[in-house]
Amino acid sequence: MKTKFKIVFTLIISMQLLSCVNDSDLNVKENNVLSQDNINPEQLVIAAYSALDYRYNTGEFRDLWPFDHAPSNWATSDIRCGDAYKGGGGTGDNPGGGMHQLETHDLFPSSENAYNVWRAIYFGIKRVDSALRAINTIDETKFPNKKERIGELKVLRAHFYFEAIKNFGSIVWYDENTPANQINQIANNFDSGFMWSKVEGDLKDAIALLPDSQTELGRINKVVAYAYLCKAQVFQKKWPEAIISANYVINSGKYGLVTDLEKLYSIPGYGNRENIFAIQYSINDGSQYGNLNFGNLLNAPDSPGDDIKNPYLNGDDFDKPSQNLVNAYKVGADGLPLIDSYNNANVTATDLVDPRLDHEIGRTGITWKDWAARPQQADWNRDPATYGSFLVKKNVISPNSNGLASNPTGFPWALGNLDFPIIKYSDLLLWKAEALIEGNSNVSGGVAIINEIRNRAKNSPYVKDFNKPSQNAANYLINLYPLSLSQDVARKALRMERRLELANEGHGFYDLVRWGIAEQYCNAYIQVEKTRRTYLQSASLQAHEQYLPIPQIEIDASAGVYKQRTGY
Q1: Are 82 and 525 contacting, i.e. CB atoms less than 8 angstroms apart?
Q2: Helices H, strands E: what count in the chain?
Q3: Which of 120, 158, 429, 440 is 20 to 30 Å apart from 92, CA to CA?
Q4: Residue 35: which pLDDT band, with cuts at 50, 70 and 90?
Q5: Statement: residue 543 has pLDDT above 70
Q6: What topology does CATH give the domain 10-254+545-557?
Q7: What is the DSSP letter of 464?
Q8: Quick count: other Cβ atoms within 10 Å of Cβ 484?
Q9: How far apart are alpha carbons 384 and 377 in whole angstroms?
Q10: Which residues contact 116 (CB under 8 A, 6 or more apart)?
Q11: What is the rounded distance in angstroms from the CA atom of residue 387 to the CA atom of residue 393?
């Protein structure tokens, strides 16, 4: 059973949340409120699932259109780790007001972007809490699915708190047992041991409650809970435990690598087997545009003059892959990454490159997915002088996906019911490889898993030349690592492979932080990249900027209960 949640009435359900108990946005308010007194518990569970897309019916623009705080984390990860530039119509084009400052690491406590991330996370936590409080009052004889639904909700709560930890490093923890009148008295806790124990506790509770499979498509099951537990253990460097959790998922046989990368990133439903846990989007569901990935709405290519020969007719051109990322796909004559020297010079048309480059990143003159009208054009970029000419190609729906996009020839541009993965099978495999390498228990076994990922890329159909479709679009070459790598070299190979395989999926910055190299890496990136992008001249990452600031508006509303991270 897949872990996507098939919801055709998400917009209706997204109105369902209990009223708040105080004025803090920790206890968020929504219009058209429904409560456990006038809704059945199954609907409250669905409302908690629907919170994954960060869209809420509050009547505020930012809560219906999460452009600057997408659940894909493109603004809080991709553009902060050097995998992408902000993009758009110049440095002054700032959804949320401070996105340029995210890219330059010039963060500030009044940042609307940080506040919107905080709001989105605690909207989700509140929905989970509402559902758990209601379900706990119902006798199991009257609600036969009670145990399973509690398990699902605990995985969802672990996900939202995980996002709070990754982004803020400090959370306000409360659960269904916390008296409502005490929630606004809870301090944000910087104790990482406490925070992780709560996340792990929820996931282990869920594992005990959930079956391996559920009868309804998309509901979280025990295997998903183990996958998320593996992620939490990797973030804590619990290597033996992470291996056990990963093995449970692998041995379940429910998930695996699909064979065609182009379809994985383009065709709705094709990635079902690979997406262990994904946000599912819908069309033709009775809502105005469909319940689409509005958090990534800004990231489609531009289309000057709305020319019908262009694939999406329009777009805002944000989240643009960086030159550094494109260079990372260069390989040597052995078909292996140039881990230490890839950025010494920019990619040229004659360079050998990993075939994943043109599946994941759009380059001028190269075939765009299955679009037959023309290859990628230079004028698909809004501000190439500032941000270059590379386009985010990954996880953008095929322009020929008939019936799968809400409006393929107009607003909302490149959006459709293409799911966005939170946990992919390839991600889980690389967690296990990392645990084997870092734990030094089986380095060659870790390298073998890296090779499994690379072998999929090697055997996946390559992007073809637009004018000569019998030929490849570039000089593609990819080969496997020898299994005899030392631990140090294997570690470098693992980290590079995570970047190549998962680029622009919202993981990069958080990986750098958990590896303890964010300052060193980002500042080294900026030193070179500022020679290519002048707006980075004064950029730098300081230690405290590895986490978003606690929103000042929340600190003020808490009357001093919440504390800011030192440095802000």
Answers
A1: yes
A2: 20, 8
A3: 120
A4: low
A5: yes
A6: 1.25.40
A7: B
A8: 10
A9: 12
A10: 62, 66, 68, 69, 96
A11: 16
Collapsing DSSP to helix, strand or coil, 81 comes out as helix
455 φ, ψ to 5°?
-65, -35
| C-alpha span between 214 and 217 (Å, rounded) | 7
Query: How many other CB atoms are there within 10 angstroms of residue 225's CB atom?
Result: 28
Structure tokens at 229: 């537990």
Round to whole Å and give the CA distance between 254 and 426.
13
Please give the Cα distance from 375 to 409 (Å, whole number): 17
- Could you tell me if residue 105 is left (phi over 0), alpha (psi between -120 and 50 degrees) or otherwise beta? left
C-alpha to C-alpha distance for 362 and 67, rounded to whole angstroms: 21
Q: Where in the chain is the domain with CATH 1.25.40.390?
A: 10-254+545-557, 294-506
CA gap 143, 40 in Å, rounded: 10
Strand partners, 476: 353
DSSP for 117-185, written as a single string:
HHHHHHHHHHHHHHHHHHHHTS-TTT-TTHHHHHHHHHHHHHHHHHHHHHHHS-B----TTS-GGGGGG
Whole-angstrom Cα distance, residue 31 to residue 36? 16
Say how far apart CA 318 and CA 100 lie, in whole Å.
11
Q: What is the CA radius of gyration of the chain?
A: 23
pLDDT digits (tens, 9 = 90+) for 304-340: 887 888 998 889 999 999 999 999 999 999 999 999 9
Indicate the residue type of 346.
N
Q: How far is CA 408 from CA 289, 316, 380, 397, in A?
A: 11, 15, 16, 9
- Asked whether the predicted pLDDT for residue 10 surpasses 50, the reply is no
For range 279-297, the mean pLDDT: 89
Tokens of 267: 């065709």
* Mean pLDDT to the nearest integer, 228-248: 98
Cα of first residue to Cα of last residue in the chain, in angstroms, is 45
Beta strand pairing call for 275-279 and 361-362: unpaired
Q: Which of 298, 322, 283 is nearest to 408 (CA)?
A: 283
Name the token pair of 154. Answer: 């605990």
- Three state DSSP letters for 476-526: ECCCCCCCCCCHHHHHHHHHHHHHHHHCCCCCHHHHHHHHCCHHHHHHHHH
User: What is the pTM for the complete model shown?
Assistant: 0.92
Please tell me the distance from the alpha carbon of residue 334 to that of residue 367, in angstroms, as a whole number.
26
Instruction: Please give the Cα distance from 233 to 227 (Å, whole number).
Output: 10
From 276, 433, 270, 279, select the one nearest 359 (Cα to Cα): 270
Task: Report the DSSP pairing between strands 275-279 and 420-424.
Answer: antiparallel
CATH class as words, domain 294-506 = mainly alpha
The per-residue b/e assignment along 307-330, b for 16 or more CB within 10 angstroms, e otherwise, is eeebbbbbbbbbbbbbbbbbbbbb
Is the previous residue joined to 144 through a cis bond, with omega within 30 degrees of 0?
Answer: no
